[in-house]
Specification:
The protein is 67% helix and 0% strand. It is mainly α.
């Protein structure tokens, strides 16, 4: 009976995996069709001729899209925000986990409350504040200052991650560091932070994914020259086509979408083992 139950569970998981992968498969199929094939009825699944040139034109034809320039902007923004969020969230989580101070639980409750606020609620007040500080529309890479200032205090969910992880480490590590003459910051940086590898990997994966996939915030803050790949996907053009014709560049947009997801897929599979361990351990308090 247990063997039959495991087989049924495997079948269900395989079916769920196929459902999750189907949008990526369909995006790849649409990227290989011609614009005319998308208007055919009835709809055909596979293209008559694979249009691999769509990927070549997206990558190397500036008339279609400045792919590598937009990718550079996305990677620069995502990597810098990920580094800032990881370090600042770890510092805050270490303070909440290892040191007692008046109002600590109240402040931690406020941090948890920030997780309940939708991004759209704070987006307009932040934009007004950054506009009054005159840090918008700056040249590259200072155009990312609003994102860096938003990442500098840390994000509530990752402060919670690190707080739970650091709370599970033995107090003897901290006592040994104090005996050896380490201050609080050195205790954190040399001992606790290196031990929090699973929490670091989890934070990096989530932060990079959310920042790399963000559409609304870059659209609001950045100009066309410094725009990320997520926003530039809507500006894809079909080369050598008059735009008086009703021919949407959907295959080219799908080709960009396939290339756009590759860094996220590579990141997840490269850090999958640490990611699973981080999810499992950050919710346990010793």
């Amino acid at each position: 009976m247990r063997k039959d139950k495991n087989s049924f569970l495997i079948i269900v998981l395989m079916f769920a995996s196929l459902l999750a992968l189907f949008p990526l498969f369909w995006m790849m199929i649409m990227a290989l069709k011609t614009p005319e094939e998308l208007t055919l009825y009835p709809v055909t699944i596979f293209p008559k001729v694979m249009q691999w040139n769509h990927f070549q034109e997206v990558l190397f034809d500036p008339r279609t899209l400045d792919f590598f320039g937009s990718l550079r902007n996305s990677l620069t923004l995502s990597i810098t925000v990920t580094v800032l969020v990881t370090i600042s969230s770890a510092l805050a989580g270490f303070g909440f986990a290892r040191y007692r101070a008046p109002g600590r639980n109240f402040l931690f409750g406020i941090v948890l409350a920030t997780m309940m606020l939708p991004q759209l609620v704070t987006l307009i007040p932040q934009y007004i504040m950054f506009s009054q500080l005159n840090i918008l529309n700056k040249p590259w890479p200072f155009c990312y200052l609003p994102f860096w200032l938003n990442a500098a205090p840390g994000w509530g969910i990752f402060i919670f991650f690190f707080r739970q992880f650091f709370a599970g480490l033995p107090k003897e590590l901290e006592d040994a560091a104090l005996i050896d003459g380490c201050g609080r910051f050195r205790t954190f940086w040399n001992i606790f932070f290196p031990l929090s590898g699973p929490a670091i990997i989890t934070t990096c994966i989530f932060t990079f994914q959310w920042t790399f996939a963000d559409y609304l915030t870059p659209l609001l803050y950045l100009t066309t020259e410094n725009q990320t790949l997520a926003v530039q996907m809507q500006n894809v053009r079909i080369p050598n086509v008059s735009y008086t014709l009703p021919m949407p560049p959907i295959p080219y947009q799908m080709a960009v979408g396939v290339l756009y997801t590759l860094p996220l897929i590579v990141l997840f599979f490269a850090a999958q083992r640490y990611f699973m361990k981080g999810i499992a351990t950050t919710g346990v308090k010793g």
